Amino acid sequence: MATHITEALYISGGLSSSIDFNANNPVIGYQNLVEVGGITSDSAETDYPVTNLGNDSTAEYWESASDALQYVTFVLGTAQAVDYIGVGAHNLVGATYEFQYKVTAGGTWTAVDTPLTPNDNSAIMWLFDSITADYWRIKITPVTGTNPKIGVVYIGQRLQLQRRIYVGHTPIVYGRNTSIQTGMSESGNFLGRVLKREQLESSFEQENVSPSFYRDSVDAFVIHAKTKPWFFSWRPSQYPLEVGYCWATSDIVPSNQRTNGMMSFSVKYGAHAPWT
Predict the structure, then answer these.
(1) Cα torsion for 55, 59, 60, 62, to the nearest 10°?
(2) pTM beyond cutoff 0.70
(3) Residue 155 confidence (pLDDT) above 50
(4) What would you report as the CA-atom Rg of the chain, rounded to the nearest whole angstrom?
(5) Domain that holds residue 265
């Protein structure tokens, strides 16, 4: 039975796969099966079509032309295994949303679980037992007077890292990096401050990673991260609200840490600051 633990991140019982893993191992969502030609919506503003969800940019987003009930549908082209969904750069705070799927075009839509309502506009990440399906959709019941908009949707299979993160890590939602302009009068009085830009920044390390796990599972993510973003939850069960839509700010370079072949690597990354 799946279990909800917050408005921002949903976890099923399928996160533990061996003695090395449990529900607090970091999770990266970088695989994305969404294709531009397979996305439709009930409505869209002319300048903000739903096809914008087929790219990684948070500046190019889908915006509904209505505050009525909305469905955004994704056709993957073939039934594929999916165990995470990520939503970034959205204004769904206060709205109700639900992820649904069906295996065939003529099938019945099934909810992954019950609807949720976000507390804010931070990145959303749902983790669940693998479902093989071709058709996925987001059901959105907006806040009255607010047309929903979303910048990024990833649907795919997650990477669960081998080592948990403990001390020395800044959760991404707290890693605020702002550019501020301060107004001062000629006599030295404070006139106010203007926020010009905000993003989030952090880093994490992985040590004693087995050589086979790095080569078989991590390196594909490292190659992806050279040019593309990903979703990240550093400690999903204990701190499920601390999710980011992230990108690497420097190369990820592993090193041999021990004579038995164990490896280490570190990731420095930025993330999209929630819309206000």
Answers:
(1) 110
(2) yes
(3) yes
(4) 20
(5) 172-271
